[in-house]
Design a protein that fits this description.
The structure holds two protein chains of two kinds. By secondary structure, chain A is α/β, with parallel strands linked by helices. Chain A is built from 22 helices and 20 strands. The chains are: A alpha/beta, B mainly alpha.
Chain lengths: 532, 92
């Protein structure tokens, strides 16, 4: 059996490490079950000041058959460090990479990081174990494994056919949380400022109850886990593209509640954050039965927090049970479901409201309106759950009117927010639409863009048709200060210089192009917006 | 070859040292690797009242930290019958 070293790259350096890398923990659990020997180095959790020294020590600690590393695009820089060091310090190890950063642009990543031997494109739950099984047999003919990108004998980059998504997801084990520093780091950083209960959480863990999202928000990337990933032949080679196909998968309520019970019994958790892209889209797809059944079982299995059961204020010293929070959607959320969720112990729901401008919402592809956003905030508050009203500015069609719409709604609803900037992460529709515009801002250097990407709280590649980075930064400050006067004054200045705003219209057909997908024709989002 | 030999083969400079001295720190796994785990970073504090939460969240505002003031809470009287769902999500 193989010896595998998982290395978790640093992410969100400005914040404390708060989240066990879920996919990595799941992969570790899968391969340990198969008998492989596994160690995990959580670089994000430990963040030693002498990272390279520590990493070197870790890489020298054993004869690793595989050094595995992966993460989101925002971990690009850290992953590159790990890959380069792995090739230098442990040259006999196979360096395998995966996750969103690779799946979104496998060809680019393999080109930018020559140290990666093999990349897992899309879901790794079956691909990675198969790769290890071949390694155990001494077989390195990766062309036989679906879902890989690799270098052949001549160092040419090859990609195999895509692997179908795992269907029986309840067969997955529970993530190997224990391989990550829970007591040392994560439980001490249990607090997340999303609700009173999550703020006072003592032992919080994340779980993932579903894969995918039915919506098509144009700034969003689904990691190749939503059935949206196809392959295309480009002049540079085979690559991935992403379309509007969807294949939603959700765990059974029994699996989910049993996993939470396991987390409580083994690790003593008092709070669980659902990582799901969008709990409500799964609930809607299940005929609105999934979340009610989870809540029913949650209570039946004794996970309901005692403060909720006894209708008393939450006291973290006395409360027994498990609170939770997750993700929601303004149009798909229902009042009756919120009441049931609150009864089970839900304390916050994260809403990607993004904007209170109907034009912006329509162009995003959010399937919501200002009215539905406001309704969602109200009914969530009324149910006793804190809605997290995420806002973004700097969309392609952002203009002064939409910014003022946001501010009006914030005042009506009591929203306190410091908005994100619209960011076209690799793999999203707007990444393809605005790639040229983005790269121009980085002197044509893709790697410089990848290194700059963060969690969208700071400006990176601007995709607004009307505002530049300086304007967006200034406008955000004025919005937060509710300084309508200066915003209105600046609009006059802006119009003197630019005239009328560009308001691109995004409709599905503007972005679909027919491509050949292994003999089948599929629609892929590649075309540019219509800018009048 | 034992695991200890393995490690020694890779780190001859460690020969003669105790496991704590020579073992890799920061590792967790399903088999024994010599060495102690490094001590952790500082813990976060926790408070409980709504006001404390909102004050604290306001200080740390940005990104996913955003909230709706409870003092602003209104009574939601349910969905108005006239309100229609917006268009279904665009699908292929």
């Amino acid at each position: 059996m193989s010896k595998v070293l998982f290395t978790n790259p640093v992410v969100r350096e400005d914040d404390q490490p708060r989240h066990v890398p879920y996919g990595m923990a799941m992969l570790a659990a899968i391969i340990m079950k198969q008998g492989h020997q596994v160690q995990a180095f959580d670089g994000n959790a430990w963040r030693p000041p002498n990272m390279e020294e520590v990493l070197t020590e870790v890489l020298r600690a054993d004869r690793w058959d595989v050094v595995a590393v992966g993460g989101l695009s925002t971990t690009y820089k850290s992953i590159r460090t790990i890959v380069e060091l792995a090739k230098k310090v442990a040259p006999r190890s196979l360096v395998v990479s995966g996750g969103g950063f690779l799946t979104s642009m496998p060809l680019d990543i393999m080109t930018l990081m020559p140290g990666i031997d093999v990349g897992v494109v899309g879901e790794a739950y079956e691909t990675f174990p198969q790769l290890l099984a071949m390694l155990d047999k001494g077989d390195r003919d990766w062309s036989k494994v679906l879902g890989l990108i690799y270098r052949d004998g001549e160092r040419n980059i090859r990609m195999t056919d895509p692997r179908p998504l795992l269907q029986e997801i309840d067969t997955l084990p529970y993530p190997a949380y224990e391989l990550f520093p829970l007591e040392e780091i994560y439980f001490k950083n249990s607090m997340i400022l999303l609700s009173e209960e999550s703020m006072t959480a003592r032992r919080r863990l994340d779980i993932n109850a579903s894969y995918g999202c039915s919506l098509i928000c144009r700034f969003c990337f689904h990691l190749g886990l939503s059935g949206e990933m196809v392959q295309v032949d480009t002049p540079q080679g085979r690559d991935t593209m992403f379309n509007y196909d969807r294949e939603l998968r959700w765990h059974s309520p029994r699996y989910i509640v049993d996993m939470v019970k396991y987390a409580r019994d083994r690790f003593g958790v008092d709070f669980v954050s659902f990582l799901d892209e969008n709990l409500m889209t799964m609930n809607a797809s299940s005929g609105y039965k999934w979340l009610p059944e989870i809540c029913r079982l949650w209570i039946a299995e004794g996970l309901q927090p005692s403060c909720v059961r006894d209708n008393v204020p939450h006291d973290p010293d006395k409360c027994r049970g498990v609170h939770f929070g997750g993700t929601s959607h303004a149009t798909l959320v229902r009042q009756d479901v919120l009441v049931q969720m609150r009864q089970a112990g839900c304390s916050y729901l994260d809403y990607g409201l993004e904007s209170f401008s109907d034009r912006i919402l329509k162009n995003i592809g959010k399937a919501s309106t200002r009215k539905f956003n406001e309704r969602a905030v109200k009914i969530t508050m009324e149910a006793g759950i804190r809605p997290i009203p995420n806002q973004i500015i700097g969309f392609p069609d952002e203009f002064f009117d939409s910014l003022l719409d946001d501010m009006d709604a914030w005042d009506r609803l009591g929203v306190v927010v410091y908005p994100f900037f619209a960011t076209a992460y690799p793999g999203s529709e707007w990444y393809y639409t605005y790639k040229d515009k983005i790269l121009k801002q980085y002197g044509g250097n893709l790697e410089a863009y990848l290194e700059d990407l963060g969690d969208a709280t700071k400006i990176t590649g601007v995709i607004s048709e009307n505002f530049n980075a300086v304007e967006l930064l200034g406008l955000r400050e004025l919005m937060v200060q509710r300084d309508r006067k200066r915003i209105v004054e600046y609009e006059k200045v802006w119009r003197r210089h630019h005239g009328e705003p560009k308001i691109p219209v995004f409709t599905g057909d503007n972005f679909w192009e027919r491509v050949n997908d292994g003999g089948r024709t599929k629609k892929v989002a590649v075309k540019k917006a219509v800018v009048p | 070859m034992s695991r200890r030999d393995n490690i020694d083969a890779f780190k001859p400079e460690d020969a003669g040292k105790t496991p704590e001295e020579k073992g890799p720190k920061f590792l967790k796994g399903n088999y024994e690797v010599p060495g102690a785990v490094e001590k952790p970073a500082a813990a976060a504090g926790g408070k409980s009242s709504t006001q404390t939460f909102e004050d604290f969240a306001r200080q740390r505002l940005g990104g996913s930290i955003a909230f709706v003031m409870k003092a602003n809470t209104f009574v939601w009287k349910g969905d108005k019958p006239a309100e229609k769902n917006p268009e279904e999500p665009e699908k292929k």
